[in-house]
Write a structure and sequence with these properties.
This protein has about 230 residues and is of the alpha/beta class. The protein has six helices and seven strands.
């Protein structure tokens, strides 16, 4: 098991992607702290899983959640940040402030809060992995999704900055940019699309497990696309 005895904090642990990722890390031998607004131990009936219901909308909430995980396992070896949201369908000129704030809050500020909360402990131990999920549109902007794309681009910049700032501290930071994910939510939202071309969550989960392992210790600052059949 490549992650035996590793403590992995997964935010958004029970979402469409999160379920696949959480199961993959448990199968790899990790002790998983699963974070979401509504999550419970019964969601993943595995002895190495513990649920931590929490919001990440403030610095204090993120610090309290991280402190609770450290109290349970004494450390955090890997952070897998999956929290994100999508809003679109309007030109930039028509996008309201509420949509802008929602995208920045969920796709950028939540990541900033949790990164800042876990980094001191990782730096103290000179070891750690930080992994995040961005979006293809972070580097390939499309019309009608301007503030979503901008928030994901800011997340990519944040992850790469964390990688640079901690390159001498044994900490790596990488971000994956998937295309459209084959999740129940996306299938319901796009019933006429061809999901055979979409990205399978299991593929993303496998890559995250690899990046969290010792075999990927020299990979940092990477921005990795996973586009499925929609190249």
């Amino acid at each position: 098991m490549p992650l035996a005895d590793k403590v992995v904090l997964i935010t958004g642990a029970n979402g469409g992607l999160g379920t696949a990722v959480t199961n993959a890390f448990l199968e790899a031998g990790a002790c998983v702290a699963g974070v979401a607004r509504k999550i419970q131990n019964s969601d993943f009936p595995h002895p190495n899983f513990t649920a931590f219901p929490a919001e990440l909308g403030s610095a204090d909430a993120a610090r309290a959640m991280v402190a609770a995980v450290i109290a349970r396992w004494e450390r955090i070896d890997v952070l897998v940040h999956l929290v994100g949201a999508f809003a679109g369908g309007q030109f930039v000129a028509e996008t309201d402030d509420a949509t802008l704030e929602q995208m920045l809050e969920v796709n950028l500020r939540a990541a900033f809060h949790v990164f800042r909360a876990v980094l001191p402990g990782m730096r103290a131990r000179n070891a750690g992995r930080i992994l995040a999920i961005g979006s293809r549109t972070a580097v390939e902007p499309q019309p009608m999704v301007g503030v979503y794309s901008a928030s994901k681009a800011a997340l990519v910049s944040l992850v790469c900055t964390v990688a640079l700032e901690n390159k001498d501290s044994g900490i790596s930071a990488n971000v994956i940019l998937p295309g459209t994910m084959d999740t129940p939510v996306n299938r319901a939202a796009m019933p006429d699309a061809d999901p055979a071309k979409w990205v399978r969550p299991a593929q993303v989960a496998s890559l995250l497990v690899h990046l969290a392992s010792d075999q990927a210790s020299q990979i940092s600052g990477a921005v990795i696309p996973i586009l499925g059949g929609d190249l």
